[in-house]
Specification:
Elements (H helix, E strand, L loop, with lengths): L2 E8 L9 H13 L4 E6 L7 H10 L2 E8 L6 H17 L4 E4 L7 H13 L7
Parallel strand pairs: 1-2, 1-3, 3-4
Helix pairs in contact: 2-3
Length: about 130
């Protein structure tokens, strides 16, 4: 049986505080998926970078990885950079099963959750 991992893939930033919501998301998901490894990787400016994380996962016997880009849209990083990285990973690890989801913000449920948040922060008629 393959050992599975869910990798949250985010851009990265110079300020380490930027990663806090992504770390909370990783922790929430790990609690919901105790039989899978849930990890966080970055494109740049922070570690671990996606190739380094996947290398580590393979060393730990995890050969089935789903990558979820935690981006609002399918911009250049998701459309150009991520496919290059995943192709290099597939070549480096031929027995790796690697799936890549669409950017999280492309999902209707995610957009609806953000829309609800925006509505909820509006002041009420009495405010």
């Amino acid at each position: 049986m393959k050992r599975q991992a869910l990798v949250l893939f985010a851009h990265g930033a110079r300020d380490p505080r930027w990663a806090a919501p992504f770390e909370r998301l990783q922790q929430l998901l790990q609690a919901q998926l105790p039989d899978r490894l849930v990890a966080l990787a970055f494109l740049e400016l922070m570690t671990p970078r996606l190739p380094d994380l996947v290398d580590r996962l393979m060393e730990q016997g995890c050969d089935d990885v789903t990558v979820v880009p935690i981006f609002l849209g399918q911009g250049g990083h998701v459309l150009r950079d991520l496919p290059l990285i995943t192709e290099q990973l597939r070549q480096r690890h031929p027995r790796l099963t690697l799936r890549v989801a669409a950017a999280a913000g492309e999902d209707a449920a995610v957009l609806n959750a953000i829309a609800k948040y925006c509505v909820d922060v509006l002041p009420g008629p009495a405010d």
